[in-house]
From TrEMBL:
Coiled coil: none annotated. It comes from the Bacteria. This is AIM24 family protein. InterPro entries: AIM24 (IPR002838), AIM24_sf (IPR036983), Trp_RNA-bd_attenuator-like_dom (IPR016031). SUPFAM superfamilies: TRAP-like.
Length: 210
């Protein structure tokens, strides 16, 4: 159902089914479609309250019908992720669209766990289906294995999936080496067996510099 047209436009072919997408991300459609704005990015009251507490602004719309919809977000690169009953953890601002059958929610990631504007929570996507995530530049998918933990700058982190444990450790970031950082820098450490999606540019983060 999900396919890319180029690297920056997502096409979703629908035959009466639905897709959830970031509000304002649809750029075109054909056929017969209905649109509904959903409150909050998570399921139920808990998701709405969590996002309000953390200041997350993630307005989601549901598109349903027959035809094709095209989605894009500020010319960001789009990456397709297939889920087979597992969970994808993704920064809220990087989640573009999901199959309507996938469940979305939030999970607490720690005291230094997210980029500026995303509070202390990461968005979760679980179930069977497809999700589309965005990145600033083409995302790189890195493998985490029990023998080789992965250390990621929080400004470059986009998402992860698999049996992966996430923790935070003090460290030196590239910005600190350049003299642009102030305070204590730290990094995200991933251990276990799974995949981590990183982007080839760094957003400004609360997480990277405290």
């Amino acid at each position: 159902m999900f396919r890319l047209q180029g690297s920056k436009v997502l096409a979703v072919d629908m035959t009466g089914d639905a897709v959830k997408a970031k509000n304002g991300s649809m750029v075109a459609y054909d056929g017969q479609m209905t649109f509904k704005k959903l409150s909050g990015g998570g399921e139920g009251l808990r998701g709405m309250v969590t996002r309000r507490l953390t200041g997350e602004q993630m307005t989601v719309m549901e598109v349903k019908g027959q035809g094709t919809c095209w989605f894009a977000d500020r010319a960001s690169e789009i990456n397709l992720v297939g889920l087979r009953g597992d969970t994808l953890y993704v920064e809220a601002g990087n989640l573009l669209a999901t199959d309507a059958g996938l469940r979305t929610g939030t999970t607490f990631t720690g005291l230094r766990g997210a980029a500026q504007g995303n509070g202390l929570f990461t968005t979760t996507v679980e179930g069977h289906g497809q999700a589309a995530i965005t990145s600033d530049g083409p995302a790189v998918v890195l493998r985490v294995s029990p023998q080789y933990p992965l250390i990621v700058d929080p400004g470059a982190y986009v998402a992860h999936q698999g049996n992966v444990r996430q923790s935070f450790q003090s460290g030196v970031t590239f910005r600190t080496l350049l003299g642009e950082g102030g305070g204590e820098a730290f990094q995200i450490r991933f251990e276990g067996d799974g995949l981590v999606y990183v982007q080839p540019s760094e957003r400004n983060t609360i997480a990277g510099d405290l």
